[in-house]
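Appendix B, example 12.
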Amino acid sequence: MTGPAPTPAPGPAGLLEHRPALRPEILLSAPLLDGPATVHLVKDPLSGASFEIGPKEFFLVSRLDGSRSLAEIGTEYGHAFGRRLGEGNWQQLLAVLGTRRLLVGGPPPPAPAPPGRPLQGTVLRGTLRLVADADATTARLHRALRPLLHPVVLGPLLLGCLAMEAVLAASFGELAGSFGWLLRHPAALAAVATLMWLSTALHEFAHGVAARHVGGTVGEIGLRWRLPAAIMYCTVDNYRFLERRRHQVAVASAGAFANLLFLLPFFGWWALLPGGDPTRRVLAALLLAGSVQALVNLIPLPPLDGYTMLGHGLRVTRLAPASSGYLRLRMRDRAAAAAYPPRARRLYLGYGIGSAVLVLLLAAGLTGALWYAVTT
């Protein structure tokens, strides 16, 4: 990328010969459906500031690479959208980009805000940042685990998890009975709860490692609590800007996969023990609770990972609220709802109906499972 051109001379000719360039670290997302509109996200990773632009603005901004003049970009724009840009349009766009400090040669970006205190909140509710540089910590962990992240290794592990879940599904009666037994034995319950907490921590670290593996970054690792519950968290940054949607889906699904991997050795132990062994009961309850933890996370309802995966797979943002808004509009003003693009109408109607049915099925299934566990 070349450096910034000299300040253009006044007038249209000077402006159109200008060859501005975005700062190379600026992030641009793929197109995302947002209600009836298509948007792109723009983010400055140094300041953390982000905003949305439409497809036409993205067409222009994504071509500001320092090698093409505004006149050349304007010609491409005219061929794509059927109209030429006037000087005022360019001045407005460059003013916005300059104000946000996104251009090479412009004012330097603001320094990132210093991290706040590690401890935030109160005894009853708050967060504790555990490492000073979460991205560097995750990078070291990724380097250690990288040999295991090859498809040749991950493929058999995934098949092993699927086989485990098939066996556990066939043994649901035993698992549910063991879980009911667990609820009546505090010592065993505490042991299983501790292992489940460790699985939750691995879930969060898996998101971070997966993000590092495909080019994302990690912003923070810490502990979040709302008494009596306390869980680990790992904030993944910038993976919405990864070029391949399968990488985004992989980051979102990594936590549930880690939960299943955590269960594999306990599954082997459980399978080797004879029926009636007290340890087998504890392991059966752990396998049921861990499987529910992993599989529930794959359900496409907010704020679960499955919802995030679906949004990335469909290239849509704010899927649940946008679907809710569309359905309300459809009941109130069918003509206005018909103005949505066909893809948006199909997607929002399908998700709205499907999520409502899914909630009812989950409620019925949970009620039945609890009744079975308590009465067995």
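The longest helix spans residues 342-375. The radius of gyration is 26 Å.
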